[in-house]
Give the backbone structure.
Amino acid sequence: MGSYYKKIDKSVLESGKITIPDDEINLLLDVSKMNVGESIDLILQFNNRKYKGKIAYKNRNSKKNKGKPYYQLTYELGLTKELKKEFIQTFLAIETEKISCNESEKYHITSDNINREVVKFQAKHENLITVSPFLKIGTEYDRLFQKIIEMNLLDLDKNDKEKDIISYSSTWIPISDLNKHKEVKNVVYYLVDTINKEVYIGSAHNLGKRVKPNREEIPGWNIFKYEVINPKYTGLLVKIEYHSIRAFASFLDNVGGESSLGISEYKLNNKVWSKCK
DNA sequence: TCACCGCCCAAGCCTCCATT
DNA sequence: AATGGAGGCTTGGGCGGTGA
């Protein structure tokens, strides 16, 4: 048992899967009883936090490489993110290389001059490996870049617009124009009956399928508006909806049993939402 | 309310490419 | 030629939607 030192590269920081050379695998794990196709689960510890990982002995089936299996260490993406924050110098170099690769349509990023920092994998005891920086290039801007990486602002592959939870908020629209908005996706919507002074709030992955005239909960609704949730946060759609309902219920008389200030003659028609008492 | 279905994403696996 | 680096395809689990 010992330590394996690895230059930081895309494998380490992005895919979270690295090939361990045959002559070094025994530093991390006793593989004498391992057969091709098998894998061993282990824990990687970095900064006192533990991450799931495994070492697999993998086959190569192509004609050219048949019969030359190799060892691959993989770990969860949570660790890749922490490592990006640790090895800022290399991470930024890789991101920079990506940009020039895109421009020149180069395919692989293996340029030697970006591989400067080194991480150390040390076998502690059975199935526990500690991960620590061995060679690190610090700068005065590390704290700033840590923040930026933490907020995913450097995921250049992704759309910049993805920072906001709400990506679009409509004006109030008369029911007669409903058809023009049928195709809108991932929305929290507000239906209002201006005659009977009623409000109803809902959410939908597909506006046209949920919002129709004579809706049971608020049959007389005649105007509506909606907010489109950033696709990145669609998992939170219902939570955002309930937050809106809860907020409205605190101010408007409502049929959901929430105590309200009753600041308006309007009434909230929602009956059910997750109440955080 | 429950069971089923389809979709999406991450993990796993395979393979090609670059480097030595 | 050998082998590590890394992209792409496949798979499977989880989750939301839908219909009974």
